[in-house]
Amino acid sequence: MKTTLVDETKNRYVGPVEPWQFLEDYLFCLNSTPTPPLEERELEELAKATKATSEKQMYQSFKDALKRFAKDMEFMETSKNPAEDDSVPGAKPDFCLYEAAKNPEKTDFSAAELCIELKRSVSWDPFQDFDLKKNKGESSDPFERDTVIANDARGQITSYAVRQFYSQYRFFAFSIVVFGDHARLVRWDRSGAVVSARFNYVDNANLLVDFLWRFSHLSREDRGHDPTVSPASDLSEETAQEIRETLNLKAGTALLKFDIPHKDGHKSFYGPHFPHPVRSLIGRSTRTVPVCDLVEGRPCKAFLKEYWRLAGVRGEVEVYAHLARYDIPHIAPLLCGGDVPHGETRTHERTKHSSPVMHLCLHRLVLDFVGRRLTEFECTKELAWAVLHAMKAHWQAYERARVLHRDVSVNNIRIDKNGNGVLIDWELALFLDDESHVNVVRRHDRTGTWQFISAALLMKPGRLHVLEDDIESFVHVLGWTVLSYLPSPMDVNERTDLVSSLYDHSFKAVTGQEQGGKHKAVYFKLGDYPPKEFTLTEPSPILELIRTLASPFQARYGEPPSEEDKKTFEFLNALVLKGQIDEKILYTQPVHRYQLGIKRLSSSEWFLGTVQDALQRPGWPVKDGADDRLIAIIDGTTKQRQLAAKRIQTESQLLSASSGPLKRSNTSPPPTLQDKRSRLDDNSDGGITRG
User: Fold this and answer.
1) Which long-range CB contacts under 8 A does 98-102 form with residues at least 24 apart?
2) Is there a contact between 386 and 408 (Cβ–Cβ < 8 Å)?
3) Which of 161, 126, 130, 162 is nearest to 145 (CA)?
4) Contact partners, residue 362, CB within 8 Å, separation at least 6
5) Could you say which of 319, 402, 520, 534 would form a disulfide bridge with 426 (CB–CB 3.0 to 4.6 Å)?
6) 667, 425 contact by CB (below 8 A)
7) What count of other Cβ atoms lies within 10 Å of the Cβ of residue 669?
8) Does residue 256 contact residue 270 with C-beta atoms inside 8 Å?
9) Between the CA of residue 341 and those of 80, 269, 277, 331, 434, what are the distances in Å?
10) Contact between 343 and 322 (Cβ < 8 Å)
11) What's the rounded Cα separation, in Å, for the pair 22 and 183?
12) HSE-CB for 524 with a 13 A CA cutoff
């Protein structure tokens, strides 16, 4: 985890900031409670800590010197007591500060107010200072030290901040890192960290004690806590148990109250802690969980989502409101939501315009819908049916509301209680007619979930995200799901390798950017997506459907017609016009196939018609749903898959739950079965009107 964090947070640490300025900017001074002077005995203990020959020898002296200044807080040595409930074991800062009422025996990141890490030597310093006065606060030299032990230390302190964020509800957090006789102060948020210049904590002991004294006198909100999330203490035990039963939670599960922005102020929802941790410091950090709304005292299930949005980009609540004005079908009804008060990052305030550190705002919303995950399809026909609905929502949003989704993935299509598909997660949507919005969003591409991003975007980071990229993502959703969840006679190891190479493959280019997608492009170019060697144990039209949908992408990834091809086509076309040869001869020509492919990629209409036609054909099995036994084989089988999932943030934390109410569904049950098909090598574009 430390190595991954070091890599992904590169250039996200801002400093050095003069320590006194750090205190003034982030821990405002309370004149009524001035910092008491350091006693001679305490100063001696600090000096003793600097002369220790090991970290362990530093602990007691460091604590004895400073614990008086952490007023009303427990200054606990936690180096011998790693967190027990952490899924990445072994996390144990040297010290944690807890509120006095909380006195855990083990390291508890869910209660930690401050983490302190001690290193024996200054060589462990994760950062390197430049002369602030000489360089007027700026330098072209890297602030992050690039040595093995410095990177290890930086990854270590960052991992503690990450654990605080995912086990608590915070806007920001603080920490102290000590190395030899020097120390730094750090303020963390979801866009990075502000780091003080290092200072000798014996010669400048007032800085360290002033920090601790100020910190312990701050309110919980000023220490970074989100006041809109709190224990559900206002519920009766009877109501609390009804909520647990509605959400299929175990008896005794702790419930939280989430105050969500509402037109009348805020509205309260109740549910458990978000079920899956976000193991990253920076980025959207999306989390979701089913919750309950109390309607006339009775719990009604809903779906809560939070993420950190880029300032200047519309929040998802605004996107849903815009789509609702156009009555876009197959989207989830919005109950309420908006930006959380005071929930924004500040690290960007100390950066230059070219910095990757972004200004982010915490955004929460609640949908009146839960549903099943797409990977819980009961049969392949339901899978195709749900994807069809998502494609309809996507196309109508693009065509009528002028909104491009830009994050089509298996996690962003849900199935309602009637088997209909619902397209969710519009947080990355692009408003095509808003030039200011387009410019802000385009500065921060690439978007999406790695396995489902188009080959074109993976091969060329920074490329403009357009409609055909999202159309391709729908094809990858079907391809990945079928290869991952349906029984096949293919050897398990061969199948695992196929899924990994096709959807997870990546490499770091000389620019430092992750690239991939070449395998996707090759299979499209060869007209072999998904590969023909993959077959199903129980035959289904789903494979032929995917291959049909993939066929236009030969035009995108294959070689365009040569000049000789164009001349041949013109010659044959002239003969057709004279009535000397049959028009069908043109359909076999590279020029015709290329033009037809490009035409079909220009809109979603041909793809929608192709899926509808396939659903009308016979031969769909009744019970060929997702095989749970394959999940362990396909999901997370390689470290590469795990890292790929982290590379571009995903919605993989979606919690499976039974269907909730869906207030609008404009689609009738599947149509009467008929036998009709469309493929790239056909001349006709039958079905609904297609481009």
Assistant:
1) 98/73, 98/74, 99/72, 99/73, 99/74, 100/72, 100/73, 100/74, 102/74
2) no
3) 126
4) 171, 190, 226, 306, 307, 308, 309, 339, 340, 343, 344
5) 319
6) no
7) 9
8) yes
9) 38, 17, 23, 27, 26
10) no
11) 13
12) 25
**Pair of tokens at residue 663:** 């207030």
Tokens of 648: 């571009």
Q: How far is CA 323 from CA 42, 256, 327, 330, 629, in A?
A: 63, 31, 6, 11, 38
φ/ψ (deg, to 5) at 229: -120, 125
Residue whose C-alpha is closest to residue 247's, from 541, 656, 684: 656
Q: Are the beta carbons of 488 and 535 closer than 8 angstroms?
A: yes
**pLDDT digits 0-9 by tens, 368-402:** 999 999 999 999 999 999 999 999 999 999 999 99
Q: Which of 45-54, 498-507, 681-690 has the lowest mean pLDDT?
A: 681-690
Burial of 143 (0-12, 13-18, 19+ CB in 10 A): middle
Return the axis-axis angle of helices 563-577 and 590-600, rounded to nearest 10°: 90
Two tokens, residue 421: 């598909």
- pLDDT band at residue 101 using 50, 70 and 90 as cut-offs: confident
- Interatomic CA distance for residues 177 and 127, integer angstroms: 11
Closest CA to 486 of 497, 495, 474: 495
**Distance (Å, rounded) from C-alpha 249 to C-alpha 268?**
19
Helix (H, G, I), strand (E, B) or coil at 483: helix
Give the integer Cα–Cα distance in Å for 456 and 449. Answer: 14
Helix%, strand%, coil% for the chain, nearest 5: 35, 20, 45
Q: Report the relative pairing of strands 192-196 and 13-17 from DSSP bridges.
A: parallel
Alpha-carbon distance of 387 to 382, in angstroms, equals: 9
Q: Which of 591, 612, 594 is nearest to 555 (CA)?
A: 594
In this predicted structure, the answer to whether residue 314 has a pLDDT above a threshold of 70 is: yes
Closest Cα partner for 644 from 472, 458, 414, 441?
A: 458
> H or E stretch including 343?
strand 334-344
Three-state SS annotation for 80-142: CCCCCCCCCCCCCCCEEEEECCCCCCCCCCCCCCEEEEEECCHHHCCECCCCCCCCCCCCCCC
- According to DSSP, residue 353 is labeled T
Ramachandran angles phi, psi of 207, nearest 5°: -65, -45
The helix/strand/coil state of 412 is helix
Backbone angles phi, psi at 251, to 5 degrees: -60, 135
CB 478 within 8 A of CB 384: yes
pLDDT tens column, 509-521: 888 788 999 999 9
Measure the CA–CA gap between 486 and 623, rounded to whole angstroms.
Answer: 11
CA distance 42 to 373: 58
First to last CA, the chain: 47
438, 442, 446, 452: CA torsion to nearest 10: 20
Alpha-helical segments (H) within 462-582: 467-485, 492-503, 518-526, 542-550, 553-557, 563-577
> Which token pair is 639?
């470290």
pLDDT of 100 over the 60 cut: yes
Residue 231 forms beta bridges with which residues? 256
For residue 535, what pLDDT is reported?
Answer: 95
Give the C-alpha separation, 75 to 55, whole Å: 17
Residue 192 near residue 9, CB atoms below 8 Å = yes
Which of 563, 604, 595, 603 lies closest to 680 in space, CA to CA? 595
Instruction: Confirm if 157 and 126 have CB atoms less than 8 A apart.
Output: yes
Q: How far apart are CA 235 and CA 240, in angstroms?
A: 6
